[in-house]
């Protein structure tokens, strides 16, 4: 599965210029800022961050705060996703309990054993053996 690209938080302060997609317009002062190149592969957010840092320090401080908060949330999310939960004792005991005689899974197993005995010409006593070496 391909992960989607994350959008930089700096874009909450800029919009892409309608006339030239290699430029971004500052939402605060309206200045056109280069996105770093003429083709899409060269686009970056460095110039946008520098613009905020030099001309709008309050917005830049807010951006840094938002980025730090997002990093904490991402770390917490990845920690939750990476940590497998341990099964409870009840769920383990439930999983090891044998099926009831008329349970659908029990019926499938009985049918498969019956077919094995019939098709392989095995004696009925095979089901009493502990292992089938």
Write up what this structure looks like.
- This is BED-type domain-containing protein.
- The chain is mainly alpha-helical.
- The protein has 2 domains: 9-82, no CATH class; 89-128, no CATH class.
- The protein is built from 4 helices and 3 strands, in the order E-E-E-H-H-H-H.
- It has helices spanning 46-55, 57-82, 89-96, 104-119, and strands at residues 14-16, 23-26, 32-34.
- Strand 1 and strand 2 form a beta hairpin.
- Helix 1 (46-55) crosses helix 2.
- The chain is elongated.
- The two termini are 43 Å apart.
- 7% of the residues are buried.
- The model has no long low-confidence stretch (mean pLDDT 86).
Strand content: 5-15%
Radius of gyration: 32 Å
Q: Quick one: overall form?
A: elongated
**Strand segment count:** 3
Number of domains: 2
Mean pLDDT comes to 86
How much helix is in the residues?
40-55%
Largest sheet: 3 strands, antiparallel
Identify low-pLDDT runs.
none
Number of helices: 4
Structural class: mainly alpha
Gap from first CA to last CA: 43 Å
Strand order, largest beta sheet: 1-2-3
Question: What order do the helices and strands follow?
Answer: EEEHHHH
Task: Write out key terms for the chains shown.
elongated, 8% strand, mainly alpha, 133 residues, 3 strands, 4 helices
